[in-house]
């Protein structure tokens, strides 16, 4: 608990992002990963492999953008740092551990950014006011230099969560909050499609709860029913093995990986 307090204090995030709970969520991610390092290893390795497969299709290798840096554990930074002149990693909250770890690579830059563009306007939003409209071009201006490759890594399903929690805390119904959440997800997908360079998308597709006996108790879309691009690869990520949420049920994620703007998938 004390360790988590210290990490939270050292986590970098804007005031609106803190207000919506992104610093707290970053610490929670760090803490869960510490508890389940071995269980998450295969998922992280699959993510790194797919990211490298995506960059193999890049003709120019000046700048690569990584969206959703988190703990950095699923990013192949050593390889990307050797392949590209600039590796720019975006997240809405940066853990102190990630900032220290990134110093290892002189051409890796960690940037604080909200890739949806809705967090700051939302922090001033109250029930009865028009909601900010998630824009597909929210990512276009992240950096003045356009990227040669974009990787969205285990980020998509997370984008609507805290905005939806926030609007419900302000009194919005679940149904309206979900409509807003879908608009955030769709804007991210349209934004990725709008890049002219190769794009890799690794995203949670379904949440699956399993009993102690291994039976599926519940399976639901992790992206509010939004259609994802056809996956080239998929795998199961035991995100919360039994004991994390309760002693009887474990939660796993069906992760799907796809490539956009790549002429010949191989
Ligand atoms: C499930 S984590 C995956 C991160 C990383 N790939 C990892 O496994 O450690 C999702 C990440 O998305 C970030 N995130 C959530 N909403 C964001 C937003 N609006 N803009 C930028 N990053 C966001 C979170 O801070 C978190 O680090």
Walk me through what this model shows.
It is a single chain. The protein is of the alpha/beta class and 266 residues long. It has one domain (2-202): 3-Layer(aba) Sandwich (Rossmann fold), CATH 3.40.50.150. The protein contains nine helices and eight strands. The chain has helices at 2-10, 15-20, 22-35, 37-55, 77-83, 96-101, 119-123, 161-169, 174-194, and strands at 63-67, 86-91, 108-112, 149-153, 199-211, 216-221, 233-240, 249-260. Strands 1, 2, 3, 4, 5, 6, 7 and 8 form an eight-stranded mixed β-sheet that branches. A hairpin with an 8-residue loop joins β7 (233-240) and β8 (249-260). The longest helix has 21 residues, at 174-194. The chain is globular, with a radius of gyration of 18 Å. The model has no long low-confidence stretch (mean pLDDT 95). S-adenosylmethionine is lined by residues 22, 26, 29, 68, 70-71, 73-74, 90-93, 114-116, 119, 153-155, 158-159.
Quick recap of the structure?
The protein has 266 residues and is of the alpha/beta class. It has 9 helices and 8 strands. It binds S-adenosylmethionine.
